[in-house]
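Issue 218. Parser rejects a valid record. Input:
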Amino acid sequence: MLPVLTALFCVSYALMTMLIVEQGATIESQRNLIRELFRDSSELSAMRMKAQQQRTQAPVTQSPSSQVPSAQAPSAQIPSTQAPSSQAAAPKQQMKQNEKSPYQMPSRPAADLGDNRRALVTI
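Output the parser choked on:
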């Protein structure tokens, strides 16, 4: 009986060694994949920032040329005192709309939201 148990012990250690080697290879390939994804993500982020800068610089160069004629326009065209405030608010709203990202975060599922009844308060 002892030789059979010794053989099973050696076989089990060999299988466990193979498992450890395979797990090491899997972990290493995952590490390489994470590094590659991080590099791609940083490149994408840099491209987005560059595109955002180009978008913000393009309206800035166009706005002085569009403001020159409005500065030459007489102030008698303004019919009431509320018109300047509404006209001043309109460019702000346009800037806010231009600043909005085309990508929106998805909503959280209900399971991810915390339960207020079980909120832990520590001092």
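Fixed in the parser; the record now loads. Residues 8 and 14 are 10 Å apart (CA to CA).
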